[in-house]
Amino acid sequence: MKDKLVIGGRELKNRLFIGTGKFSNNRIIPDVIKKSGAEVITVALRRIDFGSAEENMLNYIPEDCILMPNTSGARNADEAVRIAKLARASGCGNWIKIEVISDNKYLLPDNFETVKATEILAKDGFVVLPYMSPDLMAAKRIKEAGAAAVMPLGAPIGTNKGLKTKELVKIIVDEISLPVIVDAGLGKPSEAAECMEIGVAAVLVNTAIATAGNPAVMAEAFKLAVKAGRKAYLSGCGTTNEFANASSPLTGFL
Amino acid sequence: MYLILNGSKKEIAEKTTIKELLLQMGLEPEKVVVEHNYNVAAKEYWDNTVLKDKDKLEILKFVGGG
């Protein structure tokens, strides 16, 4: 069965995307990426602190991966556009994860500014993947603005709470003809599978892998869960019933 | 003369180019991104862009992020 995911003209084999924040040691990241099978990797862009020896993340990401810089730190569309253009100037491609946040407690994205940034960057030739609160009308606007995918959150960033927005994400999956990627909040592989079972195209996981006891093994667990959930979705899940329905014949008893 | 480099004052020699500054700072030019007076400074211009007194320069790199 051919099951393609194409984003920005790139055919992806793996529906798990991973982030690179919060790892206790960046040197394990190449192994995490390998075990996860992820082809799309997120990074952030920051000022160099000349007083610290902080390493450049590019040293740890294989060159055949698609780099998806985020615009974290942006509080409005103009700042997101500024960061996106700088990220592209690195020569590492034209994918961008728009992240516009001004709420410091829950880190919920600003859908209005995200739509604006999407329009500007899509017109400028970026492959735009906007992180968003799961709202159908915002997803429609983001699609009209030229996004390559929409990325609704499952739960607030870094909470590991799982797919708390399931009903709203499912509506977006049903109504929006773009890949829907659940980004943020997933804490366990079963929750990634839950996303895939409702027809989500891919998931983006960072904290759950980075803060696991063994991040490389957890990355592999997420990879398998994403594959399992996708297969379940493609196979067509059975219906749920209110009352019991015996699986064994109800005749011929001893 | 001096620059405002990543928000702080930095003394530099006259006629320093962006490329020369990066090398003086011990950076790997292929792995950083530069904004010069609020405009993206494309890598192909680093050799020829001479920095001027009070220019604002941001030098950035990729770090871990989700």
Helix content class of chain B: 10-25%
Name the overall outline of chain A: globular
Could you tell me the radius of gyration of chain B in angstroms?
12 Å
Structural class given helices, strands, pairing of chain B?
Answer: mainly beta
* CATH A-level architecture of chain B: Roll
The CATH architecture of chain A: Alpha-Beta Barrel
Can you count the beta strands of chain B?
A: 5
Q: Mean pLDDT across all residues of chain A, rounded?
A: 95
Q: Provide the domain count of chain B.
A: 1
Task: Give the CATH superfamily of chain B.
Answer: Beta-grasp domain
Gyration radius of chain A (Cα, Å) is: 19 Å
What kind of oligomer do you see?
Answer: heterodimer
What does this structure look like?
The complex is a heterodimer of chains A (254) and B (66). Chain A is an alpha/beta fold and 254 residues long. Chain A has a single domain, classed as Aldolase class I (TIM Barrel, Alpha-Beta Barrel). Helix content of chain A is 34%, strand content 16%. Chain A has eight helices and ten strands. Chain A has a five-stranded parallel beta sheet with strand order 5-4-3-10-9. In chain A, α3 (111-123) links the parallel β6 and β7. The longest helix of chain A is centred in the last third of the chain and has 21 residues, at 215-235. With 66 residues, chain B is mainly beta. Chain B has a single domain, classed as Beta-grasp domain (Ubiquitin-like (UB roll), Roll), CATH 3.10.20.30. Chain B has one helix and five strands, in the order ββαβββ. In chain B, strands 2-1-5-3-4 form a five-stranded mixed beta sheet, with no helix packed on it. In chain B, a hairpin with a 2-residue loop joins β3 and β4 (39-40). Chain B starts with a strand and ends with a strand. Chain A binds chain B through residues 19-23, 26, 29, 42-50, 54, 56-59, 67, 69-70, 72, 82, 85-92, 157-158, 184, 204, 206-207, and chain B through 6-7, 25, 27-28, 30-35, 40-43, 58-66.
